[in-house]
Write a structure and sequence with these properties.
This protein has one domain: 2,3-Dihydroxybiphenyl 1,2-Dioxygenase, domain 1. It is 21% helix and 41% strand. The chain contains two helices and eight strands; from the N terminus they run βαββββαβββ. The strands form two sheets. It has a four-stranded mixed sheet with strand order 1-4-3-2, covered by helices on one side. Strand 2 and strand 3 form a beta hairpin. Helix 1 runs antiparallel to helix 2. This is VOC family protein. It comes from Bradyrhizobium frederickii. It holds the Pfam family Glyoxalase.
């Protein structure tokens, strides 16, 4: 249903370094680099960062976040660790999130511009 997503960033190179490290844990790589945008993906760019030089940090109260699928709990753990090592902050450590309909394992991070990104997997058992 969704072909690709994008987030605004105030410093393209800083954000590209952050996302290159963070998304690698989920098997995504930098596929396209243009003067004001960088695309990450597996076979084609499905996650884009776009330069917005005068962008204010994303307000925490916005409630917006993007969730990316991981294959395993190890990938979720690696995503979280890579994001923190690359300058992001934790918005929820890796772990099981019980829900009324489904049990899932997720981690939440905030990039240097305030974009909230989640990695999720649905372990069996």
């Amino acid at each position: 249903m969704i072909d690709h997503i994008s987030v605004g960033v105030s410093d393209l190179e800083r954000a590209a370094r952050f996302y290159e490290a963070t998304l690698a844990a989920l098997g995504l790589a930098r596929l396209v680099a243009r003067p004001r945008t960088v695309g990450f993906g597996k076979a084609y760019p499905e996650f884009w960062i776009n330069l917005r030089e005068n962008m204010a940090p994303v307000a925490r109260e916005s409630g917006a976040h993007i969730c990316l699928r991981a294959k395993t709990t190890d990938e979720v753990d690696a995503f979280h660790a890579a994001a923190l090592a690359a300058g992001g902050t934790s918005d929820g450590a890796p772990g099981i999130r019980p829900h009324d309909r489904v049990r899932y394992y997720a981690a939440f991070v905030v990039d240097p511009d305030g974009n909230r990104i989640e990695a999720v997997t649905f372990p069996q058992g």
